[in-house]
Specification:
By secondary structure, the protein is of the alpha/beta class. It contains 22 helices and 25 strands.
Amino acid sequence: MKRCFELEKEVLSILEFDKIIEHLIHLPVSPLGQKHVQELERLTDLSLIEKKLKQVTELRDILDFDDPFPISGLKDITPEIDKIQLEGSYLSPEELTRVSQTLKVGRRISDYLKKRKENYPLLARICVSIFVFKEIEKEITRCVDLATYELFDHASAELNRIRRSIKSQEEQIRKKLESMLSTFSGKGYLQESLIAVRNGRLVLMVKDEHRRRVKGLVHDQSATGATLFVEPMESLELGNKIRTLKIEEKREVERILLKLTSLIRNNIVEVADTVNSLGKIDFIYAKARFSRELQAFQPAINSNNKLEIIKGKHPLLVLRYGTERDVVPFDLAMGERFNSLVISGPNAGGKTVALKTIGLLSLMVSCGLHIPADPSSNVAIFKNIFARIGDQQSLENDLSTFSSHVAALKNITDNADRKNLVLIDEIGSGTDPDEGAALAIAVIEKLTSIGSLTIVSTHQGALKVFAHETDFVENGSMEFNRDTLEPTYRFRLGIPGSSYGYEIAQRLGVAEEITTRARELVGEKKTQVEALLTDLEERLLKYQNLTTELSQKESRLNSLLKLYDRKVSEIKDRESLLKKEAAKEAEQILKSANVTLERAVKQIREQQASREAIRNSKELIRQEREKIKQQSKKVSERKSQPGATKEPLKKVEIGQEVFWQTFNSRGLVVSLPDSSGRVMLQTGEVKIKAPLNELFPVAETKKRKAGKARVNISANLKNLTSNEIDIRGCTVEEGIAVIDKFLDEALISGFDQVYVIHGKGTGSLRKGIYTFLDKHPRVKSRNFPEWSLGDTGMSVVKLK
């Protein structure tokens, strides 16, 4: 058992978990939480770890979205609880103040969480053991001045009487001494004309040569002996009365303190339970603050030996650099297709950091801590973690580097099983390369066969070949920029990495003739393998860049297709409306024409076809024909767009207004045709590329500056890199304006779903935003996200 504990401590030190503890211990508000940090241990019970992670998530939600958590002022009153266990003991006013403050914090936390128990059920469950002691709080506050730690005069009627008597007696003595001070000072008996205090008594400062002239009790003398501190006989009796009153005051104070202490002692079990629960809350609060500092999340956990880390970062690097520098994240999934990973690459390229990151994140999760990784990560809970990282030679045990390495490998192969994580840096190093590589392969075969999740780093080419050819073993590498000869710290799965030994040597100033000779000595086959690896790395990087570019273009294309579909729909709706209007106008024209004809026929009949009547009727018909002609012209103009000609444009100028026949709309030219003959137009709310042969000139229009015509809010639209927006602190009107623009930009950027962080608060902002979203034409639905992503402080909006 002792050996296991020592191994556990060794692994914690290797993975630098002690530095996590060093940082975490400063985050609780009291020693109660700090004690829990010091006792933090790795757990293996899946349900218990899940519970602790969710507790942190709940308190993180409070810090991010809810009202301030009322934990300020919490004290560790464990010493006070231990003290009052002894019958007859009592607490000092300062100790009572600490108790009162802590009980007050407990009451506030209990009220806070009970009101929100549906949102934070696990934290509310802890409140079951947080008791409320209003009477104790009230009595301590009534009796004790919490600022000076003195009892108030009104703490009891007797104390009030005694203190008034003391003040009265002291006033009498002072008056008497002031009278004597004036007399003796005039006679030159006093060293100084002051009333001093010695041993709690008021005295005069008498010169030694006049000691017999001032009768009284000598309480003290100066260091030189020249001054005596004398209490005159005339005030001695009053002083004795004051001393007696002081003794009575002390007894009354003790009686009051005993009474207050008894109130606590009578509830000692409940008070102790409350303090214990507050310590747990303080510990969770510290872990939530730590999660916030790291921008960490709760991952999924499993007992199936599957490890999936998405956008994981080394927590100590995040703490060190903060927002000053981006820590390069990495992705890793193992435990299904393979359970052993061989990482290769150049020195100082990040192999050791990757091993430590995996180990440290696994440790943190098993201790109930959030990790700086995507919340969709899934971390296995391991029975044991074995780590061999760095040079751990032992002079005390007479072990060389290689001997120490072999001893560690023996311990791992003897004790590891399927539920273990094994991390080995530079496996098989420190001895003959061929023998070391063979030993490393044998160890990896053993660990792979028993199912341990094994991650090793190496420079050995034989291990790279072994990983490529062996089932359940995979290669991985750390990317290296060959042009700058600097690491990028990006992890790549499925491809081995070159060590770049010659390139790094040349960069550090080694003569080229030496590196050239070294290449010759190592052999042509080895050089070809390294060249192949380098070429694979370059091709992989190229394909990754192409994939990224393709993904961006696909996202842009999807957004444009959505806009095209929307525009086509709008144009069709507009066309349908125009047809309805035209039909309606035509119907009105026909009705009017019929009425005119009937009136003309009636007029001819009534006037028996006189020339004047026939002429008047012809004039009425001519007027109606003119009206029909004018209406027909208007409909024709509306249909064909004024100014559009039959011939398409062969060239355009920037700022020229054109008519796009396919979509029956106008646009403004913002760029000349590209190699494929497509012109960038700004039409309506967006910029769209259109074929030149589909564009027609618009007559009688002045050339305008691109980007200013027909554009309002869309002039400020941009492609988004995040589908999340935070409107906390905005009014409803401000929030609606921000979200309206954000939704336009989200559509252009190709997002189907966005997240709106509006906080909880009173709920008025959320209600106002929901009213707006429910009426928005581009919003398909809105709802709350999964609990771990923000509860009611955030909304998920799906777009059409």
